[in-house]
Amino acid sequence: MSFEWLNTTLGEICGAQGGAIQTGPFGSQLHTSDYKEFGIPVVMPTNIGESGIDEDCIARIDGFDVERLSQHKLKIGDIVFSRRGDVTKNALVRLHEVGWLCGTGCLKVRLGDEAIADAKFISYCLRLPETKEWLIRHAVGATMPNLNTGILSAVPITLPPLQSQLGIAATLGALDDRITLLRETNTTLEAIAQALFKSWFVDFDPVRSKAENLEPVGMDATTAALFPDSFEESESGLVPMGWRLMPLESAYEINPPRKLKKGEVAPYLDMASVGTQGHVVSGFINREVGGGTKFINGDTLLARITPCLENGKSAFVDFLSNDQTGWGSTEFVVLRPKAPLPPYHGYLLARHPMFREYAIQSMSGTSGRQRVQNDVLGRYSVVVPSDKVAEAFGLAVGSIQQKISANQEHAKTLTQIRDTLLPRLISGQLRLPDTEVANENMLSEAV
Question: Which structural domains are found in the chain, ordered by start?
Answer without folding.
Answer: 6-160 (3.90.220.20), 248-383 (3.90.220.20)
